[in-house]
Amino acid sequence: MKDDHIGRYISIAYRSNVTLLNKKLSNYGIGRGQYPFLIALYKKEGICQKSLCDFYNIDKAAAGRAIKKLVDKGFIIKKTDPNDKRRQLLYLTPKSKDFKKEFIEILKSNEKKMKKDLTEEEIEVFLKVIKKICFNLGVESTSLKEE
Fold first, then answer.
1. Which one of 24, 38, 76, 123 is least enclosed by Cβ atoms within 10 Å?
2. CA distance 62 to 145
3. How much is the pTM?
4. Cβ neighbours, 10 Å, residue 54
5. Cβ neighbours of residue 141 under 8 Å, at least 6 residues apart?
6. CATH 3.40.1710.10 applies to domain 6-114
7. pLDDT tens digit string along 97-143?
8. Domain boundaries, given as residue ranges, for the chain
9. PROSITE patterns annotated for this entry (predicted)?
10. How far apart are the first and last CA of the chain?
11. Residue 46 CB: number of other CB atoms within 10 A?
12. Is the CB of residue 37 less than 8 Å from the CB of residue 76?
């Protein structure tokens, strides 16, 4: 246990999860940088890029690249905010709405694989601990802010 490091296992789990999702989503032209934005927009459309950056703790440039790819592939569109002409709001397209059920099933299958052989108590403890780790690392926002 002396040589076990939390960061190592977080990194391994993250990369394994991303690799599996990439395999499942590559047929749809969605890469690892884009699917978190689809997840957020399925939960709440009409949000701006800054809210997504805050929610995922992602820098503005990386978010901009991911959003551009999703726009180019026809999954999302940008509309000017009627209350602030400088701001663009993001919305799902019919293509992404048609894809939602399949996308959610892919995510659920990954989640199921991660939780295999874990008790509800273990999952609860893990979530409590990982949230503390995020907080310790300076991640303060864990939910989308209202616009």
1. 123
2. 19
3. 0.80
4. 17
5. 54, 55, 57
6. no
7. 999 999 999 999 999 999 999 999 999 999 999 989 988 888 765 44
8. 6-114
9. HTH_MARR_1, HTH_MARR_2
10. 45
11. 13
12. yes
